[in-house]
Each structure stands twice: as C-alpha cells, then as structure tokens.
Automatic annotation (TrEMBL):
Its main location: membrane. One of its GO terms (biological process) is transmembrane transport. The lineage of its organism: Bacteria, Thermotogati, Thermotogota, Thermotogae, Thermotogales. Its cofactor is FMN. Its EC number is 7.-.-.-. The modification FMN phosphoryl threonine is found at residue 160. Keywords: Cell membrane, Electron transport, Flavoprotein, FMN, Membrane, Phosphoprotein, Translocase, Transmembrane, Transmembrane helix, Transport. The chain crosses the membrane at residues 20-39, 45-64, 94-112, 124-142, 183-207, 214-233, 239-259, 296-314. This is Ion-translocating oxidoreductase complex subunit D. It comes from Fervidobacterium thailandense. The keyword Amino-acid biosynthesis does not apply.
C-alpha cells in the first residue's frame, strides 16, 4: 500500500476567529446583565464603550497604520474591550477606560504583532496599568443597587469581601457577606466579577461549544482549593475558607475567562496544568501575604511570561522518535 503525505495543516475546521469571539461575547453576556442589575446603567455603558472603542481602535491600526486594506473586524478586540470593562469599578470614568483600551490594543496587542502574537493577556495588562495609573478610580467600590436603571447620587462606598477578610478577619467578612451574596453577586467589586454563578453558566456554554480546554480552570481552581484548605486549617480567622476564596473577587472571571486565553497560555496539556497550578499558587500567596487583597490579575500575567519556557519543556515526543 502506498502512503501519500501532504503539507500541513492536516486537521481542518470550519470555525473562524469571528465565530469563536462571538461565542465568548455570548458567554460573557450573563455577567454584563448581572453587572447592569447590580451597579446600574453605568456598568452597561462601560461595557459598550469598552467593546466599541476597542473595535474602532483596532480597525484604525490595521487599516491606516499597518496598511492592511483587507482587514475585517473579527471580534477579538471587542472581547478584549469587554473583559477590560468587566475588570474595572463602576466608579471608573469612561475616559479612563478608553486609556486602558488604548494600552490593551495598541501596546499589549499590536506592538507585539497583533492577534496571536501578544505575550500577555491585553485586558489584564491594561487593568494592571490602570490600577497603577488611576488607583483611586480603580479601587473605589460602590455597594450593589439591585436595579437596572439606578444611579449613585451620594458618595457611599463599600469594601470588597477580600478587603474585609484581609483587614478585619474571616468572621467580620461573613457578617457582612454571605456565600449566597458571593454566588449571585450581591457584593461590591469590579462590575463583571461579582456574580460567580453567571460566570460559571457562561463558562459552561463555552465548554459545550468546545471553545475552552478544561485543564487550566480545573488546575487553577483545584490549586486554590487545596492551598486555601491547608491555610484554613492553620488559621481559620486569618485565611478564610476555600469556598470563600473560590467565590470572592476575580477568581471565577480570571480562572474561567482570562487564564484560558488561547494566545497567552501553553499549548500542551502538561504545560496547561503547570500554568494553572502556578496561577493558583501565586494568586493565594498574594491574597494571603501581599499588600493587595487580590492576586488574580498579577498571577495570570506572571505566568504569561513563563509560557514560552513551559511550552519548550513540555513538548511531547515526536511520533517515531525516542526521548533524548
């Protein structure tokens, strides 16, 4: 029997970048609805501003700076803009969000070559950039309104569950917030990270559509659960329960939607497991011993930097060859 070989690719699909990005936007839509309900119309406006400005900026860069006259928007910029918007406080002015979008698209994404070439997750890098540049706007938290068209008419701020845990202890945090509040999102925080339940529902949609591999979320959340369980046995009042850490802060948004970015994560299953474990460990070290109560964004960005090394040392053996 004569065998014929042809050049790669050998596995083809009818999926396109646009179809994948549309699925991601659909998966994030429950979080946008929750953000609008809990924080009012301003949260919805920030989400729309993030998506539209990111798409317009990328169109300008591709058509006029990179001279790609055939460029057609594929939705990747909209996903970046929406994720960034979901990672800011409702107190963040729209023009600050625009600065973040400019940093994410122009610096983090296109300065490295555009889609598929960026080293760091653009939305997370922009969030950290805004956190350093505009700390007051990025760390001013309002309590949930619980109505779609509400507005904040006075200067009433609140603390996030992780901040209360760090400053006052676990018992104080549980007096102010219940697990039901953490699950449904009836808490202060970034507009898109509050409702863990709706983020999980959106994630399950992506799993059903085959858009996300489960290795990173499982190892990330599993590492957080194991590490926080050990620390809880050491000092319950200081460190809090594993369920608290899984539901509070940006854990679900980061583990399910940010750490699973196809471009900035390892290619191999073994590498993805290493990536997830690293994210989980760094997140909890920052939460427990760092000066900032949240560590999701920084942990994912730090592990993004190690992706080339992880990919290099987790390459599988080529079929027909022996391990060196």
């Amino acid at each position: 029997m004569k065998l014929l070989t042809s050049p790669a690719p050998h596995v083809r699909t009818t999926d396109s970048t646009a179809s994948v990005m549309i699925d991601v936007l659909i998966a994030l839509s429950p979080a946008v609805v929750a953000a609008t309900y809990f924080f009012g119309l301003q949260a919805f406006i920030l989400s729309i501003v993030g998506m539209i400005s990111a798409e317009l900026l990328e169109f300008f860069i591709m058509r006029f700076l990179r001279k790609d006259k055939g460029f057609v928007p594929n939705g990747s910029a909209a996903v970046t803009g929406l994720l960034l918007a979901l990672n800011v406080s409702v107190a963040t002015p729209w023009w600050v969000l625009l600065i973040g979008v400019l940093f994410a698209i122009a610096v983090v994404k296109h300065a490295f070559g555009g889609l598929g070439q960026n080293i760091f997750n653009p939305a997370l890098a922009a969030r950290v950039f805004l956190l350093v540049s505009f700390p007051t706007a990025m760390t001013t938290w309002y309590p949930p309104l619980g109505k779609f068209f509400g507005t904040y008419v006075d200067i009433q701020t609140t603390a996030t569950p992780l901040a209360v845990l760090k400053l006052e202890g676990f018992s104080s945090a549980m007096k102010k917030f219940t697990y039901i509040d953490l699950l449904f999102g009836n808490i202060g925080g970034c507009i898109g990270e509050t409702s863990a339940l709706l983020l999980i529902i959106g994630f399950l949609y992506l799993v059903f559509r085959g858009r996300i591999k489960l290795v990173i979320p499982i190892t990330y959340l599993g590492t957080v659960f194991v590490f926080s369980s050990i620390m809880y046995m050491v000092n319950p009042e200081r460190f809090g329960t594993p369920l608290f850490h899984l539901l509070a802060g940006g854990m679900m948004l980061g583990a399910l939607f940010m750490a699973t970015d196809m471009v900035t994560t390892p290619m191999t299953p073994k590498g993805q497991a290493i990536f997830g474990v690293g994210c989980g460990l760094i997140t909890m070290l920052i939460r427990y011993f760092g000066g900032y109560p949240e560590g999701v964004s920084l942990s994912i960005l730090l592990m993004n930097a190690f992706v080339p090394v992880i990919d290099r040392y987790t390459q599988p053996t080529i079929f027909g060859r022996r391990k060196s």
